[in-house]
Amino acid sequence: MSHRHVARSIIMQALFELDFNGFDETRADAALEHCLGEFSAGIDDPTFIKETTKNVVNKRKVLDEIIEKAAPDWPIEKISVVDRNILRLGLYELLFGDREHVPPKVAINEAIELGKAFGGEKSGPFINGVLGAIYKEIGEPGKEQVSKKKKPHVALDPSQYPVEIKGGAVVFSKDEAGTVRFAMVHDVFGYWTLSKGGIDAALGEIEGTQAKIKSEIGIDVDILEKIGENEYIAHHPENGPVRKHVLYYLARAEYQPLKLKEERGGLDDVKWFGMEEIADLTMYDDVTQLMAMAVEKIMAM
Questions:
Q1: pLDDT tens digits, 242-251
Q2: For a surface tag, which of 12, 17, 163, 189 has the fewest beta carbons within 10 Å of its beta carbon?
């Protein structure tokens, strides 16, 4: 076992001890010193351990927001203490670590191995699913770096996974003067995106999407038509892989104040934008395509 892997296990155990006792950040140094005293045999220089632990603790809130964005159906407090602290460490290394020494795929693989060693039967797949989703969100840096020791991947049939339906919309307003504005939400990855979320099956796809948008940004919308859909695989810590099928609509609303809900699942802002401002926003590729389609349809109205 490499010294760096042992170091990560010490960091994880220090984070676990800190979290188990209420995550009082003033006790971080004491928790780390305790774990170093218990488990640091063979570690000559604890600098990496101390610096990484300090940085994870300092960035815990933003790390937790990103984890909740990647696993929106599993609030951070419901993730097991072991898994959430492995995710915090893995995510810190993935986003803020030195990629020359710890490539993104190494950060993910190390977190998975910690999950296998310290977590439950489903910890590894869950950690892989969450960090893998974030890795894709940030553009898969270092994707071309393939490990020579990489084991062949045995693909599972996604059609066998349970399906969850989500709804989202390009929300716009258009006044009597023809001025068009779009209501968009900002996520913790730095992107402006569309309001969306899980649909209440009892309401159906249209009413469920309307209800979700009102819950998230505080306004009523009128669904006009469906403009797209996509699907991705998410990993639930207890139920395993789930197919998330997202339906996207064009929805009209009155131009009025927006209010982001308190439990915002990785979102940190909501705002109206004029037609001329949209091109300058940082958006995901699929959102850009949906916005372009929406603009074309709105201009034809």
A1: 777 899 999 9
A2: 163
